[in-house]
Write a structure and sequence with these properties.
By secondary structure, the chain is mainly alpha-helical. It is built from 17 helices and 2 strands. The chain has a two-stranded antiparallel ribbon. Strand 1 and strand 2 form a beta hairpin. Helix 11 runs parallel beside helix 15.
């Protein structure tokens, strides 16, 4: 018998033994510790991958310039929205169902899901290309969208296979695939810059990264998941009918963030769209962290929602506290570090992006809370409430874009984005408090975190030093204030003290 880092055990008969262990771990007292350690590993791997990406991204932004960089991010946003509109919450639905199904049900469920996501990703690809044609985008962007759609299809399959790793809290293996994708992306970007490539070939980079991560994920789950997709229309109808409201709720919750990028491409100049796109890309990278962490905790929430109300309340409170603290730290880092980040990633030609990034930084705490509350509401199956709140935010996004972008360009888009994050977080919190008041979180840490953030920002802004030193000094002051005020969750301290394997 051999134990893997993710906690599964390989025995004769392999697949059933692994899935049983994975199912039991979600209900055990070890689940929280595995999430903290595994989630920490994923964040570290992601952060190291970002450092690798820092080699490539500045080269690409300087090579393409503001206009072409804006076009590149625009196509990425079109792809993102197309996927959200067609696949919706199918991936999250997969994690929830896989976490609560019996071992016997999981193989057939995953086979059906593989087939369904393959078809849906092809529909998303077609929709993305059609949109670029209808919107009147240039031939390069239309062709680039078509090329990027190859990676879209491959990534959908990888994400489906990865459900088994997420549900089993084998987050270390997910970290390996995350890191591999970032390294491959950076390497391909550098090669294209060295080769002097124009814009079009850059849209194939996602395909190369998706191929590598798909292969790795298959290696990790091949013994427990059926690798062949099922194309049974009757089973798809049952699966899709059960997830339709869920998918609609999830879709609207992710589309609003990218609407601003599309609006910039249609309502402002190419150069202004480029300025916003650089700042947006930096924020997009930062925002991946809360979603990565909370998605890692989703199987625990899904399991606790089945008759374990006290455990669910405890988990949500800890996620809320952690989101406040970590979100505030990232807010400080982005606001104070904006000049340095823009200078390194974009160079002098992107200097107007600094002010935009500072504005976007204000909404980061909101993003951390949005990630926490959205998964909480999905876990509780409050789909219709999610649809209402998310639909209102989408409408607000369109209204604010029309009102602010034509006159204020990239800065206006920054205000729109930060506002949407804060409004959505408040909307989710209100829904949870009204529908499940027993799960309403305590706000005891909020004033202390706000005070610590204010102290760190005040020092960082007042120091007559460069952005790096100001960020470091402000961060240290904020951390010290958090400890002094007792605002660091005890679980964080316990996780840090734990020895490997402890």
């Amino acid at each position: 018998m051999s134990a893997e880092p993710g906690g599964s055990v390989a025995e004769p008969g392999g697949a059933v033994s692994e899935t049983i262990v994975d199912a039991d771990i979600l209900a055990s007292r070890e689940a929280g510790g595995k999430f903290l350690r595994g989630g920490g590993i994923r964040v570290v791997a992601y952060s190291v991958g970002l450092l690798v990406g820092l080699i490539a991204t500045p080269l690409v932004t300087r090579h393409l310039g503001p206009a072409d960089w804006g076009r590149y991010i625009t196509v990425s946003s079109v792809i993102f929205i197309a996927v959200a509109l067609t696949e919706g919450g199918v991936g999250n639905l997969g994690v929830r169902e896989y976490s609560t199904d019996s071992p016997e049900e999981r193989r057939s469920f995953m086979s059906d899901l593989l087939g369904l996501r393959l078809v849906l990703s092809l529909v998303a690809a077609a929709g993305a290309v059609v949109f670029t044609l209808v919107a009147g985008y240039s031939s390069v962007l239309v062709a680039g969208t078509a090329l990027a759609c190859i990676g879209l299809v491959l990534e959908a399959q990888r994400a489906t296979f990865a459900i088994a790793l997420t549900a089993g809290l084998r987050l270390g293996l997910l970290a390996v695939t995350d890191f591999a994708g970032q390294v491959v992306t950076a390497a391909l970007m550098v090669l294209l810059v060295v080769a002097g490539a124009k814009l079009l070939p850059f849209f194939l980079v996602t395909t190369g990264a998706a191929l590598v991560t798909l292969a790795l994920t298959i290696v990790f789950v091949r013994s427990e998941v059926n690798l062949r997709p099922s194309f049974s229309a009757s089973r798809w109808r049952s699966l899709f009918a059960g997830s339709l409201v869920y998918a609609a709720a999830t879709t609207l919750g992710v589309v609003y963030f990218r609407i601003v990028v599309i609006a910039m491409s249609l309502l402002s100049t190419k150069v202004q769209a480029g300025y916003f796109s650089l700042s947006f890309r930096i924020i997009d990278i930062v925002n991946a962290i809360p979603w990565l962490l909370v998605a890692s905790a989703f199987p625990i929430l899904a399991k606790a929602a089945h008759g374990e109300a006290e455990r669910l309340q405890y988990a949500l409170q800890r996620l809320f506290d952690g989101s406040l603290v970590v979100g505030a730290l990232f807010t400080l880092a982005v606001i104070l570090g904006a000049p340095f980040a823009v200078r390194v990633i974009g160079g002098p030609s992107f200097h107007p992006s600094v002010a935009v990034l500072e504005i976007l930084g204000v909404g980061i705490v909101g993003t951390f809370l949005v990630a926490t509350w959205s998964f909480a509401l999905l876990t509780l199956k409050l789909y219709r409430e999610l649809i209402v709140v998310n639909a209102l935010v989408v409408v607000l996004a369109i209204v604010l874009c029309l009102a602010l972008i034509p006159d204020h360009d990239a800065k206006g888009a920054g205000v729109v984005t930060a506002t949407l994050e804060i409004v959505l977080a408040l909307g989710y919190a209100i829904v949870l408090a009204r529908r499940r008041p027993e799960l309403r979180p305590s706000l005891r840490l909020a004033p202390r975190v706000a005070l610590a953030l204010a102290a760190g920002l005040a020092l960082g802004i007042a120091l007559p030093t460069g952005a790096v030193l100001a960020t470091v000094a402000g961060g240290l002051v904020m951390i010290a204030a958090l400890r002094l005020l007792g605002a660091v969750p005890e679980e964080f301290l316990q996780a840090i003290r734990l020895r490997p394997g402890g």
